[in-house]
């Protein structure tokens, strides 16, 4: 059989992730400068604490709008940065919001208390009773404090994802309350028509991004593509592949390595969405996921009926060949993490080395497909078996399998402990960070 391949894609001269990240930082810095300008233009109160409190509140409002952009799941950002990194930024931005708004509340309260005969507690009660919008701000701050508490590592590890996610949904309530407080009492908001227009634009873009990325785009794509299950194929005792077809799939902007949030519209599972990677490169006719039974959602896939409607949110993820920097690659998979690796092998050009790490030969899901693909594309395939200790992918072993690994792009997907170990090995082998590509499933609420 003759395999016809297109010319290898040239290395990326400008890294998409760097462009997107720099663009986000630049936009945030520019808006911080605009906020500062409008703040100084509005004039200062006589009390220093009130001045600092108002400025902290404005920066907190700006961070809240920026936070909405991070969780909007906008395709342009997601393809370049990745949902896992956006989620990490979301977490730290959330703590920034918590501290700026807490500073705002404390400084404003103590500032007004200085010019009255009230203690801080009674002062905030008085403000809530007499000034429009303050009570809403107090409620918003309370919600943010609760969300911040459940986001701390100690609490997060002890909460079910569903509970954590439900609590996070109240953040949207806090955003609306904070915005109405800003409209009602924000001196900078009402200081000039330009400032008012600016703040309405900021909140309009932020809330509009959430509406487009989280609601309108998924609804539009699912209405357009009409996905249905066409086959359910067991790959092993606890692994199953689900094939889907639909309309105009050649126009779906999915790439090998990406994942969707899949919702199978059965009476008992329509409400549950699970992230699964594509296990084959999109061909314009079908989509395929391959999942290991690790919970109720993934275990139930084996019983999904042909013809079941599927609601898919995505595609998501930056684990694609878009981020290549070198003409040759190494694809490293562990366990069921082979699914995006197998899809990537179809798409990447240039000489490729595939390393598949499993405990036993029986655990090598999709190995026959990998072998056939490697043969067709002239790639090297290494199946590495054995218990996790001793580490079969230590630096010396990786250097033996791929002597020129430091001159290649490395795509890595597998269980977290394995990924951590391999990332350590790559550092010891002096593989440049821009050449290492990986993504963890981590969803922002």
From TrEMBL:
Residues 222-322 form the FAD-binding FR-type domain. It comes from the Bacteria. Its cofactor is FAD. The chain crosses the membrane at residues 24-44, 50-71, 92-113, 133-155, 167-185, 197-217. Keywords: 2Fe-2S, FAD, Flavoprotein, Iron, Iron-sulfur, Membrane, Metal-binding, Oxidoreductase, Transmembrane, Transmembrane helix. The keyword Acetylation does not apply. Signal peptide: none annotated. It is a multi-pass membrane protein. This is Ferric reductase-like transmembrane domain-containing protein. The keyword Acyltransferase does not apply. It is found in: Membrane. Its main location: membrane. InterPro entries: FAD-bd_8, FAD-bd_FR_type, Fe3_Rdtase_TM_dom, FNR_nucleotide-bd, MRET, OxRdtase_FAD/NAD-bd, Riboflavin_synthase-like_b-brl.
